[in-house]
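Hi support team,

I've been running sequence recovery on a batch of backbones for a student project. Most finish fine, but this one hangs at about 90% for roughly twenty minutes before it completes. I'm not sure whether the input is malformed or the queue is just slow. I've pasted the structure tokens below so you can try to reproduce it. Let me know if you need the job ID as well.

Thanks,
M.K.
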């Protein structure tokens, strides 16, 4: 496939506001692919050269790209910058400067190869090499191709091709319907590599997908926790359970494969560089290969103090990392093991997996076993919950001792219980920012008045609105958030967003914000949970608690199904709601 062909398909995807159409166009692209094109296309359409968990970066930010664009089109840099300020999209800037057509287009495989070369350039003089390489690649492309190449390089595709869209498109391309989705999804949950899955499906069909196993070095999609209203409901539903503190840190999956250690976030991105202390500790583990699941948090064992989430995620730049590692070293409270010495442990009962964790971590004071106690008494569970809250933790996570590790699933194998203030929801909700209103007066000065927020409808792979947000941030907080929003602004409502509200500015769904609300109420206007015969849901008195961009992708936001469950739970008697 020529790159120009892919670019023109990407243009069609950009133009559509229907998700079904998005899936159809993408499935046509896959249908026209040869086997060796599946991987590069799958990564490129998500603005990547490799799966998300591989830390392969092209290494050309906006400033260097402007230099490369100027060189490619023989234009002064100032002019490129000026044009870019007008268009607000570096892809469109390149498109305006590029020739409308070219006699020959390089192939997709060739473009991927050349970008990989650019990514691979390192050491002295490598920046110039990257800029030159990119300028020369641009020089071979028509204007539409140039636009998409620049967006791929920035990792900002503005298309809304999420993982579910890719999985649906693969199924349509092979079967003409969605029927392969469960098999594809299961393979994805175990390997997190969409390119590998596409290629395996083409080469070895469904049996090939089934044969894709958990492997050290490839993150597994994390098991997630359900909610129940209170300890009584937990014991009634689950009987004997294991109870662990709920730490408010960052979910980490620690992989050791021989000498190589990698650490992945809940978003399945590499965080190996961010946590050198954990890497050292993992490399000392007595196992040839292992995958652990846990929560990283800066913790002082002497004072038994846990550092708040915001500080745990404050390590960004290299200098910060060293300073933080010195000042507040990171620990990981490990609660699970999914793989050891070549064996997949996900099907082993939790009781046994936990014993393996204890045996593995005996000697480490950085990788700590998350303490676990067993009970079938609601009274004991209540005491544990209150005790953990009083020690500065978020609450507890309750686990079924006989459960397997179900990658990517949110079910009652794990249940989280958090602080339960009477009359309020006992859990925060993670919403995605979908747009904003400019606002008046002081707020307008900060750039954003109110935010339009939504949750995720995983069945439809759509973002649906649930609330407007206006409180919870300091003045500086508003300024910061507005700055982050700037690069996500889009001219039209994105195709995966369903909304009856029209904000002043639409945003590409990317930023996840944790909010606390008093209540979930029925709403005739918000689209969360709305159907032909049903109203939607809204949040009452929502306030922003924290930004969760570091650990949550938009698809990790609270789902419509969870909102419906929370709505039903809050109506159960004994919840102490007013009225
Ligand atoms: P939430 O993000 O509110 O859905 O809560 C689930 C998250 O709690 C998990 O993804 C983990 O990051 C975190 N967590 C903290 N402590 C534990 C624990 N002991 N077991 C499982 N998850 C935990």
């Amino acid at each position: 496939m020529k790159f120009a062909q892919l670019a023109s398909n990407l243009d069609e995807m950009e133009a559509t506001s229907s998700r079904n159409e998005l899936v159809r166009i993408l499935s046509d692209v896959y249908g026209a692919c040869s086997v060796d094109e599946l991987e590069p296309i799958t990564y490129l359409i998500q603005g990547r050269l490799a799966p998300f968990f591989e830390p392969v970066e092209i290494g050309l930010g906006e400033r260097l790209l402007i230099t490369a664009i100027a060189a490619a089109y023989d234009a002064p840099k100032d002019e490129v910058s000026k044009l870019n300020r007008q268009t607000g999209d570096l892809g469109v800037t390149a498109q305006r400067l590029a020739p409308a057509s070219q006699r020959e287009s390089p192939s997709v495989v060739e473009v991927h190869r050349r970008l990989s070369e650019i990514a691979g350039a390192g050491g002295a003089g490598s920046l110039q090499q990257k800029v030159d390489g990119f300028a020369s690649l641009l020089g071979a492309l028509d204007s539409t191709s140039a636009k998409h190449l620049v967006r791929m390089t920035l990792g900002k595709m503005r298309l809304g091709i999420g993982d579910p869209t890719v999985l649906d498109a693969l199924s349509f391309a092979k079967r003409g319907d969605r029927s392969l989705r469960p098999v594809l999804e299961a393979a994805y949950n175990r390997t997190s590599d969409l390119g590998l899955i596409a290629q395996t499906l083409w080469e070895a069909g469904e049996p090939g997908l089934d044969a894709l196993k958990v492997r050290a070095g490839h993150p597994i999609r994390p098991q997630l926790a359900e909610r129940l209203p209170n300890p009584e409901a937990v014991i009634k539903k689950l009987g004997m359970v294991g109870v662990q503190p709920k730490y408010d840190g960052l979910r980490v999956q620690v992989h050791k494969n021989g000498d190589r250690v990698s650490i992945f976030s809940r978003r399945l991105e590499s965080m190996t560089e961010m946590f050198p202390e954990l890497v050292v500790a993992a490399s000392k583990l007595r196992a040839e290969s292992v995958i652990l699941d846990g929560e990283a948090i800066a913790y002082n064992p002497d004072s038994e103090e846990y550092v708040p989430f915001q500080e745990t995620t404050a390590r960004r730049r290299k200098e910060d990392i060293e300073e933080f590692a010195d000042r507040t070293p990171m620990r990981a409270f490990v609660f699970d093991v999914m793989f050891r010495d070549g064996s997949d442990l996900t099907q082993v009962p939790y009781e046994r997996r936990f014993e393996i964790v204890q045996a593995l971590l005996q000697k480490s004071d950085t990788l700590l076993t998350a303490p676990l106690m067993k009970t079938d008494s609601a009274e004991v569970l209540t005491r544990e919950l209150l005790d953990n809250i009083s020690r500065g933790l978020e609450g507890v996570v309750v686990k079924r001792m006989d459960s397997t590790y179900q990658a990517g699933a949110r079910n009652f194998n794990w249940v989280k219980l958090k602080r339960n203030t009477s009359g309020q929801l006992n859990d925060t909700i993670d919403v995605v920012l979908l747009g904003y209103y400019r606002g008046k007066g002081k707020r307008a000065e900060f750039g954003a008045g109110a935010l339009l927020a939504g949750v995720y409808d995983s069945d439809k792979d759509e973002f649906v609105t649930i609330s407007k947000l206006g409180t919870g941030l300091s003045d500086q907080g508003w300024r910061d958030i507005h700055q982050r929003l700037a690069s996500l602004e889009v001219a039209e409502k994105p195709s995966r967003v369903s909304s009856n509200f029209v904000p002043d500015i639409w945003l590409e769904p990317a930023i996840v914000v944790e909010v606390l609300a008093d209540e979930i109420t029925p709403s005739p206007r918000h689209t969360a949970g709305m159907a032909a015969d049903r109203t939607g849901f809204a949040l009452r008195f929502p306030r922003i608690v924290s930004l969760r961009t570091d650990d949550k992708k938009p698809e990790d936001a609270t789902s419509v199904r969870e909102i419906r469950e929370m709505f039903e739970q809050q109506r159960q008697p004994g919840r102490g709601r007013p009225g």
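--
Follow-up from support: It reproduced on our side and the slowdown came from queue contention, not your input. The first strand starts at residue 224 and ends at 227. No action needed from you.
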